Amino acid sequence: MPRLFALDQNFPEPMLDGVAEFMPEVVLVPLRRIDSRLSDMEDWEILLALHHHERAWDGLVTTDSSMLTQPREMAVLRQTNLTLVVARGAGHDPIRATGLVLTHLNWICRNTTDATPQVWDLTARSRPATDPWTLIEKIGAHQHRDPEDLWRESQLTANELRIDPLAG
């Protein structure tokens, strides 16, 4: 049985609709499709409305990390045994938030239970790029080999580098 999560209005519906067939473990429904009045409610009221709704909601997916600092929201979450998934660190970028949620959703669905309230605080860190030489050094350390030897063995010759693999 797939998990059933409500989505706040910050997620791009066409994008989620497009991947729905590839995620049999979950059904994601925007708040406005559940009931248009939910868009005007406080976060704790949304949680309470999901708890009382005719469908058995597992929880809410949001980008609103301020919910994590609100005692009323946390109290209602605890009382209703719902799951709250927060895409934190995505800023105001709906594509990034969607990617963050999709990355973790399978794991969340497998570990969500009706008997225990849960908060999944998802973060996305942007890191600087890694120099390939650093990775060659790591490979060398893992293989107990000198990275210079690996480089010499693995690099293309000048002639090999000039040949386009698609031109022929």
Q: What does this 3D model show about the protein?
A:
By secondary structure, the chain is α/β, with parallel strands linked by helices. The protein folds into two domains: 3-123, 3-Layer(aba) Sandwich (Rossmann fold); 132-162, no CATH class. Helices cover 44% and strands 15% of the residues. It is elongated and about 70 Å long. The N and C termini lie far apart (52 Å).
In short:
Helices cover 44% and strands 15% of the residues.
What is the domain tally? 2
Report on the biggest sheet.
Answer: 5 strands, parallel
Strand arrangement within the widest β-sheet reads 2-1-3-4-5
Quickly name the level 1 CATH class of the largest domain.
Answer: Alpha Beta
In N-to-C order, the SSE pattern is EHEHHEHEHEHHH
Q: Mean pLDDT, rounded to whole units?
A: 90
Counted by DSSP, the helix tally is 8
CATH architecture of the largest domain: 3-Layer(aba) Sandwich
Question: Compute the gyration radius: what is it?
Answer: 23 Å
CATH topology of the largest domain: Rossmann fold
Could you outline the blueprint of secondary structure elements for this entry?
Blueprint: E1 3-7, H1 13-19, E2 26-30, H2 31-34, H3 43-52, E3 59-62, H4 71-80, E4 83-88, H5 94-111, E5 118-123, H6 132-143, H7 147-154, H8 158-162
Parallel strand pairs: 1-2, 1-3, 3-4, 4-5
Helix pairs in contact: 3-4, 6-7
